[in-house]
């Protein structure tokens, strides 16, 4: 079953980020043993190249499918995020490890 959630993203250095949203449509939140936001990351992060080009085209989707490996998060049900909306943070990230799920909430 696919569960969709509103995915907001402030990671301006990611090629999928546009207008504070993620244009990828589906992402994976990593951090299987996370107990706080800083121990999670967006495994789908791809750094923008210097040309300023982006992988995104058109308008970002309002809802996204989010696979979640952070089993300690209260929104994780069967490796899917069931939060109404989530925020991925890491404004100047160069790698996925510099991103985080700002909506992570330890259960």
From TrEMBL:
This is DUF1540 domain-containing protein. It holds the Pfam family DUF1540. Residues 8-45, 66-104 form the DUF1540 domain. The lineage of its organism: Bacteria, Bacillati, Bacillota, Clostridia, Lachnospirales.
